Structure formats: C-alpha cells, structure tokens
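Take a look at this chain, tokens included, and explain the fold to me:
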Amino acid sequence: MKHNLSFKEYVYVASMLFGMFFGAGNLIFPVFMGQLAGSNVWGAIGGFLITGVGLPLLGVAALGISRSNGLFDLTSKINKPFGMFFTVVLYLTIGPFFAIPRCATTSYTVGAERLLPEANGRLYLFLFTVVFFGFAFYFSLRPGKILVWIGKVLNPCFLAFLGVLLIVSLLSPTAHIMEVAPSGAYVDKAFFTGFLEGYNTMDALAGLAFGIVVVNVIKGLGIEEPGEVAVNTVKAGVFSCLFMAIIYIAVTVMGTQSRGVLETSENGGIALYQIAQYYLGGLGAFVLAATVTLACLKTAVGLITSCSETFSTLFTGGKAYKKWVVLFSGISLLFSNLGLNSIIKFSIPVLMFLYPLAIVIIVLALSAKLYGHDRLVTNSAIGFTLAAAIYELIRNLPEEVTALLNLDGSINVIGGILPFSGIGLGWLCPALMGYLIGLIIHFMRKSNA
C-alpha cells in the first residue's frame, strides 16, 4: 500500500491547489494594496498573508487533521443544523452567487474589455461570459481530471504569463519602496487594513471548500489510510501556500514600485493594466488578458467542481453531479452579467459574516483534542461568534439599506461597546469569550468527575 506521494505528485497537487486558490482577485487586491500602502507595505503584507495565506492553509489542514470528508462533515461535528446552514451558505458564496461570477466578470473587466471597442459593452460582456463558462463547464464535467486540467495545464500557462509581467516590473522599478508615501488607512493601520484586505480573496473560505477536492485527488493517487491522507493533504497545502505567499509579495511590491510613474489607481484592475502597458507597451494588454483569464478560469473550474461535488453529496446521495455542474454554471453566467462593482458591493457583507465563523471553525477543528471534542465548547464558541458575525453583516450592508431599515443608531451603539469594531474585528472578543467560557466549563466538569 502507498504511504506518501512522490515529489512530482506533491508538485502537481500543490499546483492544482494553488491554481484553484489563485484567481484574478488574488492579483487585483494585492497590487492595489501595494500602491496604497507605499512605505508601509511590509506591515500591510504581514496582515494580508495571515488571512490570504495562513487561514487557507489552516482550513486545508483542519479538514485533513480532523479526517473529515468535507466541510459538512467537519461542521456537523459542532452541530448538524448549523453545519448544514454554514456549508450551504459558504458554498453558495464562493460558488454561483459571488466568487464564480466574479471570476468571469473580472476576466472581462481587467483583460478582454481593454481589447474590445467601447460600444456595446454589455453585449461583449455577455458573449465573453458565455464562452468563459462554456470552457469552465467542459473542464468541470470530469472531476477526476481536475489534477490534469488545473495542476498540469492551466496553472503552468497562467504562471508563464504572470512571470513575464513580474520579472520585467521587478527588475526595473520606477520607485524605491521607502520613497512612496502611504495613503488612506495604510498610513497608521497598515497591518490591520492588510488583514481585512485578505478577506476579499475569499481563500480562507475556499480552503474549507477545496479541502475535499485535495483529499479525493490524494486518494485517487493511491493514498488510502485516513491518517496518511491527512498528512499528505497538509504537506500539499504547505507547498501550495508557500508558493502563494511568494507570488503575493511579488505582486504587492510590483504595485508599490509602480508609483514612480503611475498615480494610485481607482482599483487593482486598472493598476494591473497600467503597469502592463507601461512595461510591455501594446503587448501588455494581451499578456494581461491572458494572465487574468487563465487565473479566473482555473479558479472557476475548482469552485464549480467543489460546489457540485458537495451539493450532489448533500442532496442527491452522491448522484447527479453533472446536473449540479449545469445549474451552477448557468446561475454563475446570469450573475456575472450584473457587473463587477455590484458583485463586490453585495459580497462584502456576506464575507464579513462568514469569515469570523470560518476562523473559529478552523480553530475548533485544530484544537479539538484540547477539549476532547466536547460540544459544549464548540456550541459556546460558535454561539457567541454567530451573534457578532450577524452584527458584522448588518454593519457592512450598503448605506442606503441600513438607512432604509433605520439601523444606523443601533450599529453605532453596538460598535461603541465591542472592542476592535473600528478596525473590522468586532467579532474577535465575543469569539474568544465564547471559546474560553466553553473551555472553563469543560475543565471544571472534568475536574469534578
């Protein structure tokens, strides 16, 4: 019986996992952060890497170490109704409602739109998304081939195009980092602003979702014993996330060093286009379009595959996988035509709701031996976190919505009570309180017994 993957297999699995994680959003947000952070870029990178790399790695590790067969299996150990609710909401968020449509829309907005006439933009967006999801649908129909499609084909092609842009820009910086003045929240809150910016990648949520894909691939490579599957899953996750951290640092520094000739852009998509055009001239638009489209396509394939596998398991007993692929591809096609700004605008409140819960779930899974899998601890931690996460959702709703519902007064009152609310971490103290209360009661019971 096989006990460990070969080095070559580790490389392929890590490439596949990196490819599923690293979409266009993973390029857009760090390059824009680099432009804004200026000389404070290293603090911003430190915060960003915690949520953009550390948490995804811990998510994959949590599934591996807990020997869970997916997110529902992991969260149902806390509470089955909560497990079903969280699993469905998370997969719909990183799936057809937000992340998958964002893949297609970002590909068009950042890449293809620059190569097309300005007139009839909505028509071009629709045609582009039809082609995009046609390819994503085709690749997703064969989940057993995901290692080949993403790990061996799409991801190497993406890295080749990205490498061209990174090499030419980093070898010829237009400004030294310490000469670039920081702006906005990065002036005095660079670390925490970078920490929250990492939320936008959705990778901590994706880590919980993609874990089952990695587990299945590793099993398909001949590793069968649960403990060995867990070890190999964690090793592949470490390789993938280390590589992801290197790319994040390079892209962020590229953004900072571009400020010698470029003003701060309106968003990361514009920043990438301007950098590509400056260094590569007319060829830059084509290189950027290929880079972004490949980045988004491989992520979309990973998301459609993981969502379809999960929903087919939860609702159709492991059957009808292809029907779920059709459904999720179709819904994603419709939502992608709403436009990038609309998708980002409505995704932020949901992310601020899900991230605290995801972080606490990961901590609970990794520390389960400490409290002997006692559900009192998990229910206490999740209960307190859920209340705070609901507040974060409401606080981040669009201003017109909170004004219409007359919630501004309540938001300000609660925000004044919760520590760290001003930096987007109002959930932290309630989560810690719930966890510690559960631990204290657990150990008191154990002591009395």
Notes: The chain is about 75% helix and 0% strand.
